[in-house]
Design a protein that fits this description.
Leucine-rich repeat, LRR (right-handed beta-alpha superhelix), 4 domains, repeat, leucine-rich repeat, 30 strands, 575 residues, transmembrane helix
Length: 575
Amino acid sequence: MERFHAYGCGIKGSIPDAIGNLSNLMILSLYGNHLSGPVPSTMEYLQNLQALGLSANQLGGSIPDCICKLKRLYQIDLGQNQFRGSMPSCLNNISSLGDIDFAGNLLNSSTPASLWNLTDLLTLNLSYNSLSGSLPYETGNLKVVTLLDLSGNHLNGNIPSSLGGLQSLAKLSLAQNKLQGPVPDSLNQMLSLEFLDLSNNNLSGTIPKSLETLLYLKYINLSFNYLRGEIPSSGPFENFTYESFMFNDDLCGAQRFHVPPCPSPRIHKSSQKKVFHMLGILSGIAATTIALTTAAILLLRCRRKDGISRNTDLLPMGLPKMISYYELVQATNGYDESNLLGKGGFGSKYKGILTDGTVVAMKVFTLLAEVTSGSFDTECEVLRNLRHRNLTKVIGSCSNLDFKALVLDYKSNGSLEKWLYSHNHCLDLLQRISIMMDVASALEYLHFGYTTPVVHCDLKPRNILLDESMVAHVSDFGMAKFLDEENSVLHTKTLATLGYLAPVLMETFSRMKPSDEMFKDDLSLKSWIEESLPNATTQVIDANLLGWQDGHFNEKLECISVIFKLALSCCVECP
């Protein structure tokens, strides 16, 4: 037996010790019953267990350390029970953990320091317990976490500034604690943030105006604190109401917030002179930095990339929902040709609409060879473990003996290849730079942001998808390899499409494919561009990017030359 689902069945009594005999069990789901007593220690024999769902019962005692011996556990949900005492300090032994939910229990310890070492954790919900102590600086180690809910406890101390480094975090709730000090200005770096609740604490100081840059913030609650000063009014704050800021000491701002207007600042004459003097200095500086315009634009585009490119789904990636074959048939109107997005080496891609109205892209694998089935398994494994704002998000899958498909988030603007080579589309310089920074951000995560480095092995414009905001998402992980220490040499010998990031950089700005018929014998895309530098760069640049009539011709030429030099540095024989 691999899966045991018995949720909401009205089962009473305790979990039998004999549960440990089900050694092949991968999923155990018993939530929403009337189970009582402790979690049996025999649970440690379920060495293949990936998901443990025991929430909404009356289980009690302490959370046993035997759970830490389940090395393949991805999801553990013990919420809404009566567990007491401390959290296991050994949870960091389960490196595969992606989802922890202990909410609604009676835990009364501090959070163990080892908890913050689970750097691949996606969701952590410890709300409504009696946890005490302060939030350590190491909370910022959870670099890929998307949900962090510690509300309804007895946490004290300041909110650590390291939380600003959680750039994938979509929901943060620290409400109903005893936190004090200021709202950290570093929270403006949490560019994925949609939900922020810091209400019912002892926070003081001002509301950072920098929070106006959080483009995706849809909900904020700072009520019942001791905040003062002006309430920001731009960006997402344009949509917030007074309920978000009630019962603070001395807030002021717009009338719609039901607070008094802020007093107008009075500037002393001597201060005015200083201001005018400073403006004169700044004007002089500005006049001397025109030559650096391109670099400044690049920095702004980098911020734009981080500000827009976000995955906001709060569901864990470890267990994508199963979608029936018949729903996929219905979603694509019987795989009608009008819904065909393209064909590749392992099958076809279709656009579809699920029964709930979600528009999706379906990657249907043609099972003509064992390697194709292996590609499906590889892609499932990669997408199950990885999550980043510039990676394609998996919604679900469908798999049986005769059919395999991945259901992915649909990207309305198609692939980079379509935009590069179509006569109906054209990308300007800044758009191409921004797209490449999105791709680089995804690869940085694949190489360095996960426990085991991942090599994509098939990066090309066709596998770079653009959403409605022209943000890039790397897709198609069928050839990806986990670069573990034992098999790193073997894995790196596996090749797919010619080239990797550096040729993609070259192709994006030259509009020439590495496989173009002009490249033969000793001439390659790399050598062609290398020979053009530094004096004949214009001969290899996409003509759509540069024209002699361009008012910023020299700046653009220098910018693209730097990009080509970077690409060449990345593909030397011994990088």
